[in-house]
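call fold(seq) -> tokens
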Amino acid sequence: MSEPLRLDYRVILQIVGDGAKVLDLGCGDGELLSLLVSKKNAKAQGIELDEQSIYKCVEKGLSVFHSDIDSGLPEYPAKAFDYVILNQSLQQEKKIEYVLKESLRVGGKVIVGIPNFAYIKARCDIFFQGKTPVTESLPYGWYDTPNLHFLSIKDFKGYCVKKNFVILEQYNLGADRIIKMLPNLFATSAIFVLAEKSLL
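ret:
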């Protein structure tokens, strides 16, 4: 019996249209990319920095390129893709604004998935234990985390307003369900669909 799909993958599959052109930035081992190809008939490409992850993508027959997305996407023309995906990878980038602007340049819409550092368990770990939190969406210890930025849902929404990134859709995720109430407190992560203000 196969394991149920991760909730963030289910939400992204719901967002992406059939046959869409998709670029997955920081695609890891290609699990999401593979689902987009098989379930949505997407014309999908990935970009990944870790060589071992790239080998796993290639074994799955996926089109993945070795690159650091902090360097931008100069090889892609404007609006080459319907969607650019940054799922659980944006917080690992040094140049967040540049990466988002480049993503919006080459994609019609940008899907961003972020962990929520303000999740109640994370707050309790800091307050009661005095320790850096480890949660489902922040599964690393302080000493081996790839995350450079620790942000909350509220932080990201405020950042988008400040930088004029338009949020078209927002999904607040718990461990196994969509969170409707007080997402900054009760959601472990969130998915946003962004667009450029000039295109609306």
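The first helix runs from residue 7 to 15.
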